[in-house]
Specification:
Elements (H helix, E strand, L loop, with lengths): L1 H8 L6 H15 L9 H11 L7 H9 L9 H22 L6 E2 L1 H10 L6 H11 L7 E2 H8 L7 H4 L23 H6 L1 H19 L1 H13 L8 H12 L8 H6 L1 H19 L8 H31 L8 H12 L8 H30 L8 H31 L11 H12 L8 H6 L1 H19 L4
Length: about 475
């Protein structure tokens, strides 16, 4: 069946009449119940029977894109119009990749095109991408192979085609220092970007709530643990439960969840602007430009919401009855310490963005490329579970590098609320911790911090998938 359809659809030249007849034959094969329209289930089943392998959610996206009368199916006119327009877009993409205009794509052209988009890959990795499209084994891809591969896949430009190489919006481990995700032009114009961000924000909210006790323990140990009192995980939880009951384990979680939305929105908007400013060529952002833009966007977002970070630390560490809520906490901080208290620990926090984002991005790319080089044959897509694993490890490495700065930030934020503590600047605080507790004193609380990574990623992934489904987002 597949070979028949291939001959029908992918001939070297077709006049308008032949193309129309081809679309009619194809439509008749897909319209299994003969009701004059093709719905999502018919499209999925029909394409699978013909040997096509569309990506996840592709059938839904094809129907949504072509369904002009919104009856959840494509009639013949909608079906043929979608294919004609889609072919035009694919042809433009093919021509943009075909640097020497010889009608064929080779691995060097793919490597160069990805480099133009800020994605540096090796010759071997470019060959893997090529092999996933190459049907006749010539190690080049002609227009018919290109069209065959992407005709029933909604990807219409190179950014769509290589999107799985980018970071995943799924991950939320409670530290919003990662480089923001990028969205395709289609997602920006259709408004899908805000649905993606909303799904990510909801996933983050549920994830942070689920791991809030471990997060509170981390902050508690960062501020109160020392060589003399030897607070450990079990002892710390016992103290918390004794002082405030089970509900006290979620102190500070409200504001931690509340700051996700403004921080995500500011970071995304700032990232888009910084990319435009830093790009050496319009629309082409290289890896180092992406890293700089991401770091600057993170710094911008952190600057805007930093008072909420300070309040989160104070509310997390509060004793029963100390504050009645967020507004009471803010009012008391202003009254006792002044407005500048809302930016205590700001410098180490901003400095922490650079090692975190840099190491996170570098480790992510290295692990993903290692997996593709050693464990994947004839494909450029490592799969969602591998990407999640790479993201989890890279985020953990980023945290490991930036953790001492995070500890200093938390202690500076909490100084005024801890009885008898000195109001020390960053450099003196580092010196004091190293002198009294040694180098590993800078890593107090890292155990609960690492313990929350896997459950945080797992929860946020599951919630993100449900939210994507609920909001009608399909990749």
């Amino acid at each position: 069946m597949y070979q028949v359809v291939r001959k029908l659809v992918f001939t070297d030249c077709q006049c308008a009449e032949d193309a129309s007849k081809t679309y009619e034959d194809l439509f008749a094969r897909l319209d299994t119940n003969k009701d004059g329209k093709v719905d999502v289930s018919e499209l999925k089943a029909g394409l699978a029977a013909m040997g096509f392998k569309p990506g996840k959610g592709a059938a839904q996206k094809i129907v949504s894109s072509g369904d002009e009368d919104k009856d959840e199916g494509l009639d013949f006119n909608e079906f043929s119009k979608y294919l004609k327009e889609h072919e035009k877009k694919l042809q433009l993409t093919f021509k943009s990749l075909d640097k020497n205009s010889d009608g064929r794509l080779d691995s060097m052209e793919i490597q160069q095109s990805l480099a133009d988009l800020g994605l540096d890959i090796s010759k071997e990795e470019a060959q893997k991408i090529l092999q996933s499209i190459d049907v006749d084994g010539t190690m080049t891809v002609d227009w018919n192979e290109w069209r065959e591969h992407f005709l029933f896949n909604p990807a219409t430009n190179l950014q769509d085609i290589i999107r799985y190489w980018k970071h995943s919006t799924v991950l939320d481990i409670g530290d919003s220092l990662t480089i923001p995700d990028e969205f395709t032009e289609e997602e920006k114009t259709t408004g899908l970007w805000w649905k993606q961000l909303s799904a990510g924000a909801m996933a983050g909210a549920v994830s942070r709530t689920g791991t809030a006790p471990l997060d509170r323990m981390k902050v508690f140990m960062q501020v109160h643990a020392s060589k003399s009192n030897k607070i450990n995980l079990v002892g710390g939880f016992k103290q918390m439960l004794k002082e405030g009951g089970v509900a006290s384990l979620w102190r500070g979680n409200g504001i931690n969840v509340l700051k996700i939305a403004p921080e995500t929105a500011i970071k995304f908007m700032a990232y888009e602007q910084y990319k435009k400013i830093l790009a050496s060529e319009p629309g082409k952002v290289r890896t180092h430009e992406r890293f700089i833009a991401g770091s600057l966007a993170g710094a911008t977002a952190q600057t805007a919401i930093y008072p909420m970070e300070v309040m989160k630390t104070r509310l997390t560490l509060r004793k029963t009855g100390q504050y009645s809520g967020m507004f009471d906490c803010a009012k008391k901080i202003v009254k006792r310490e002044g407005v500048k208290a809302f930016y205590k620990g700001y410098v180490p926090n901003i400095l922490g963005i650079i090692p975190y984002a840099g190491i996170d991005l570098a480790v992510y790319e290295s692990l993903k490329n290692f997996w593709l080089s050693h464990y994947v044959k004839d494909s450029a897509n490592p799969g969602i579970l591998v990407l999640l694993g790479c993201g989890t490890i890279s985020s953990t490495c980023g945290q490991l590098a930036s953790y001492p700065l995070a500890l200093i930030r938390t202690r500076m934020q909490a100084q005024a609320s801890v009885e008898g503590s000195e109001q020390l600047p960053m450099n003196l605080m580092v010196k004091k911790i190293v002198e009294k507790e040694g180098f590993f004193g800078l890593y107090r609380g890292i155990l609960p911090n690492f313990m929350k990574v896997i459950p945080a990623v797992s929860i946020s992934y599951v919630v993100y998938e449900y939210m994507r489904s609920g909001l009608g987002i399909q990749k």
